[in-house]
Amino acid sequence: MAQKSLTTVIVTGAIAGIIGGGVVLYGQNSLENLQTSTQKVNTKADKTVKIANNATATTAYNKISDAVVSVLNFSRDGSNTYQESSEGSGVIYKKAGSDAYIVTNNHVIDGAAQLQVMLHDGKKVIATLVGKDAMTDLAVLKISSENVKATAEFGDSNNIQVGQKVLAIGSPLGSEYASSVTEGIISAKKRLVATTSENGQNYGGSTVIQTDAAINPGNSGGPLVNFAGQVVGINSMKLSSSSSGTSVEGMGFAIPSDQVVDIVNKLVKEGKVTRPAIGIGLVELSAVTVDDQKSLLKIPANITGGVVVMSTTKDGPADRAGLTKYDVITEIDGKKVMGQAELREALYKHDLNDTATITYYHHETKKTVKVKLTQKLAN
Questions:
Q1: Which domain holds residue 300?
Q2: Based on the structure, what is the number of domains in the chain?
Q3: Catalytic (active site) residue 319
Q4: Which of 110, 137, 156, 319 is catalytic?
Q5: Does 5 have pLDDT greater than 80?
Q6: Where do the PDZ domain residues begin and end (predicted)?
Q7: Which of 37, 86, 107, 180 is catalytic?
Q8: 127-164 confidence digits (pLDDT tens)
Q9: DSSP 6-71
Q10: Domain limit, last residue, from 271, 297, 327
């Protein structure tokens, strides 16, 4: 199997000239020895409303612009004074009594000694960190609701369509250009991008929305918005180049709103996200040659999608359920698994200690087992 060229995805979020300790994500699908993780999707988001025929970028922008903010990351220097180190974007999504909550990217606030938020009217306020999740690159901040005029509405990212028009709103190159808006389309509803933290922690694949709306340094944490003015994603990264040096334009990525709402709810409630793991190393069936499918996997010829178990964690959930090397998982809880993206999406519905139903092929024999997800993913 030919090795794919390495594609680098640079997470945006630093002001011009300052790379603020962001996470670097690699687009190469290196899936062996991956310990698949899960998170429960509990959108609690309003369903995407029908977009009016006369809806425009202007009407969508006006509906949400007051909720979009700049997030300022300050470090402490040797003389114990604060110095601004980077900037990103965020969106106010909830008011509760005297508090207002903002979702942004984890890499925007990473390493901050102090956080400030610049509201749409230019007023700056101190923010406190509620919780953060490096795997999904999300964080929640809290500010006083005293000066908050508007909150954003989440749409259902499952209802977006390829070719649908969207806006990216944020502070490219810093708060000097706050509330900048760019327009594009949804290029793909689900892209699987492998993620690796700055310290080398492999987070496996993240399912993201691909858009050609311009996303620049400083846009990170800002909303991707449909023409109904609803948030369908949180902008997180931009594909900048490949190992061949080819210039890449018009490829930005956003975290889908169904994931965002689930994660921010958990961060507000618990300050962290705990995930179960199925305990397998895997490769997608589509990456296995036809000859190897016949000679090694020995699966029926009509099986065209799934993930191949390459290893199991000893005494882990999959191992205890009887899965072994070269078994091919084709369904989770009755939903088809064509590759890693579908596997993760199905498992996202479960919490630690939940039971998942896995359908797989051991050679030509189709089997279904109950797997208790007792293994916690290491963060």
A1: 276-376
A2: 2
A3: no
A4: 137
A5: no
A6: 276-364
A7: 107
A8: 999 999 988 899 999 999 999 999 999 999 989 999 99
A9: PEEEEPP-PPTT---S--EEE-----TT---B-------PPPPPPPPTT--HHHHHHHHGGGEEEE
A10: 271
